[in-house]
Amino acid sequence: MSSHLSSHTDPFSDTAAIPEGDRDTILESTLHVGANASLTLGADRVIVADDAFDDSNRTYLCGLIQKSDLAKTIPFYHILDAELLNNTITIRYVRPRSSKSNARLLVRTLIYPVSTPEGLAQRWTDRMLERAFGAALRRPRIKVLINPFGGAGRAQSIYDNDIAPIFQAAGCTVDVQRTTHKTHAVDIAADLDIDAYDVLACASGDGLPMECFNGLARKGNAAEALRKIAVTQLPCGTGNAMSWNFFGSAEPSVAALSIVKAVRIPFDLASVTQGDKRTLSFLSQSLGIVAETDLGTENIRWMGDFRFTFGFLVRLLGKNVYPIDYAVRTEIEDKNDIKKHYAQEVTKLKHQQSHPNDIFDNEMGAPSGPGLPPLKYGTIKDPLPKEENSGWTRMESYPNLGNFYCGNMCWMAADAPFFPASLPSDGMMDLVTIDGDISRLKATKLLLAVADGTFFDDDIVRARKISAVRVIPRFGRPMTEISEQDQAVTSVSATSTQKPSTLQRILKKMSGSSGKTGYFSVDGEKLPFEPFQVEIHRGLATTLSRVPGVYEYEGPRGWKDINVENATTAGVEHA
Ligand SMILES: Nc1ncnc2c1ncn2[C@@H]1O[C@H](COP(=O)(O)OP(=O)(O)OP(=O)(O)O)[C@@H](O)[C@H]1O
Q1: How are beta strands 199-204 and 141-146 bridged, if at all?
Q2: Which domains does the chain have, with CATH numbers?
Q3: What ipTM was assigned to the predicted interfaces of this complex?
Q4: Which residues does 2 contact at the CB level (< 8 Å), separation at least 6?
Q5: Rounded to the nearest whole angstrom, what is the distance from the C-alpha of residue 525 to the centroid of ligand 1?
Q6: Which listed site, 166, 277, 413, 496, has its alpha carbon 20 to 30 Å from 67?
Q7: What are the φ/ψ torsions at residue 550 (nearest 5 degrees)?
Q8: Residue 355 CB less than 6 A away from ligand 1
């Protein structure tokens, strides 16, 4: 068709379907490159029309390699950076090593001479980068901390081989530091120049991110620091929950790409108080079988990872109970209401998706004041609010507790989505409690139910959304630091004074537990076995997430069937 025909006279043009501005966009969506090739912006990828294109090698330099029959598209999500210089376009991107999900990502570079006029070529490049990055921050400034002992001592080589090339190709400014001792990351974060970096990335397990949150919290302007610096994880440890939750993977290269592509989101943190000490927690607090298995199996380390399974089964078969007294500030009690809350929050988020950065400007707002927010409910040393409408339950005795698990994220480990209804910034924690004297068969089935997603709905599992909880352990060594008010509530349970059966005695011996102490786990780290109180702070910290506002999980079963227009729960109003 001759080019002089205007759209008014061209019988084949369909101006009603494509507005004038969009027509230009479509016409400009193709970049002519090389001798006879083109790059076209598709819906979610760049389409490479070049019979010779092959990116099985590190760099594809147009015309030098002749091969065909390969996938000729590059998803926008895989694009790390691009530049147009001297009529040559360079695109850096990643390519999965295999078709397996979560396959290792390899950096690739595509270089073409451009035959399209320069202005047009620049617009094409800018548009591609816009689509490739959306609301993500391009070329972030990253402080990387490497725990050289993380991941059985492989963290440094994982970083060098799988992560650094991706950051480099994405044009990130990176400053790497190795931690030299325990709690070193706390000091590094406490001294960090918060104007010099956007991201604090821990090439470690979950221990270092916890230290970083606590280090930033030490600053005089803690709230500002926690809001400015996005703390994230490059999975190089044994426990990589943070990466599973926000990036859906513990493959280091996938996490590196996620960091380059993710958006900043507000993230709830909890304060755990013991005596006068306040510790920030991002993942979980546990007491009972999970904590004992995680932290109380050091004596059988020679078993390797099997020690966790062994330790868990031995305690399960022993029907161990861990008596506590506790009081809870419940936000949502009923499991169906928790699902409604999840549905409502996700619906709200969908409205914000078109402006992902607004996630910071919603009703949550920034914490007021420069330092850490004050504790709404005081510390474990303060008396509990007495008023009827305080939202707190009374201090109750729980003599047959098997597991106390309070989570701030969905995945506690790979294959363990313990808290399917958890959300990163809803200002609530998910508390799960399970009796310890349930039948062994039921307990074993429950263990399997975690991985297959039926755990939450099981009647044996009590699940609540809460904003605070106080716990006084009544097992292990004698409690010395309990306030008088709490002392008065209950005495050690009848169960714990019952004579153990022979089987229980044998199993106790096998577990290696002396029974003289207990374990309190916060984010997988051992904290003193003492009374504690936990309180959540909505959106106190900042992290990076591939999907803003939700964890990488399908949510609690059945939430999609809930009509959110009619759903109201007490918890949804909670701020
Ligand atoms: N150089 C070091 N020497 C000794 N301990 C360290 C060092 N660097 C960090 N740590 C400590 O190692 C602990 C574990 O940290 P990490 O975040 O890697 O979690 P993890 O999942 O337990 O990892 P892993 O079990 O693979 O070591 C933290 O408590 C941290 O303080």
Answers
A1: parallel
A2: 25-133 (2.30.29.30), 141-261 (3.40.50.10330), 275-368+390-479+509-537 (2.60.200.40)
A3: 0.96
A4: none
A5: 10
A6: 166
A7: -135, 160
A8: no
